[in-house]
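step: validate -> pass
step: tokenize input -> pass
step: predict -> running
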Amino acid sequence: MAHEHEPQGRLDELMREPYPRYARAQAAEGLVHVPELDAWLVARDADVREVLLRTEEFSSVNALRPDVMPSPAALAVLGGGFGGGPVVVVSDGERHQRLRAPLLRALSPARVAAAVPYARERAAALVDAFAKDGRAELMAAYAVRLPGEVIGRVVGLDPADVPLVVHGGYRAEELLFRPLPEDEQIAAAEDVVAMQHVLDRCARDRYTHPRADLATEIVASVAEPGHGQLSLAQRHEAVAHLQNLLIAGHLTTTALIGTTVLHLLSHRDQWELLCARPDLIPAAVEEAARYDTALQGFRRVTTCPVSLAGTELPAEAELFVAFGAANRDASRHPRPDAFDITREAPARHLAFGFGAHACVGAQLAREQLRITLEELTRRLPDLRLAEGRPVTMRPTMIHRSPEELHLTWAAS
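step: predict -> pass
step: emit ->
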């Protein structure tokens, strides 16, 4: 039976440490087909940008194609939930613009700025909870919690519902991208459906009682308020958008917090420099996002025969467009494998995408990471990676991060 697990094992290995494969792809002529991804790997900065700009030829409809098809029993459980319709990440053209519009309004610079005091308050409270202990597992104690609470606030969720929604987001990823025994698939599907029912309740409430929050913006884009109740189809559509937004809003930011702290502490000189010079925090945010990108990439599919990087691709060819690889491209970023928060005039990276599908929540993510670094450098300057607790990265391309991040410092 061991041979049945070999393809998944190779995929996990690639996901946990993709950079060597990226480097080989960048050195090759044309594009390289990667069997583990069942896709052509787009690894050079210029090629990634070209794909992201040529949206009519490189469609995003397969951007979130699952790696695993749930069992019939798990699919039956999912049938009791909501969602499943097209969302902004997997849409093109006019429909993409329509779905993106309420997100742009709800995550405008003014609304992000309005969320910063809450993010700062919650960050301080979360650090307060473990600062005197001398040790913490940062992912569970802080990195998972802050982004969930912040995006929950922006969306307009009841704070009591946030942990269930965050948990449901991780379970949705497990169900569609990790091989699980059938009983675990069923349990994951039940968690996803529980999350969807919370979001449905929120959507129906905002339809009858609009507020100045993102949930109201999304519901209003689905149905004009004041006409009785949302139809079942409208509820499914609203929940699909809310679920996609919430998962994108907390999984990737959690990952970014984890990888940033990991690499700062792994490069001790960089951490000590940041503690001495907090004015470098904005630069550290950008360098961390470039160096180990949380969202490593998205899939695309060709809509017609097309040439890219000298490789002729047929219609319906699958591509993996690797933002993480582009951010280590030496032609764009000198010394790409060096983690250096003092880079002079650093080139613009692709950690938050590019073009029509650029991340609408990028500024909110940056603000949370900035606040995190301000808190940790000021309050715990002697922070260190715990000895004897090696760091293992999650086997995922959607939110690359440590599975756990054990830290120590001198307790007060």
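step: describe -> The chain has a mean pLDDT of 93.
step: cleanup -> pass
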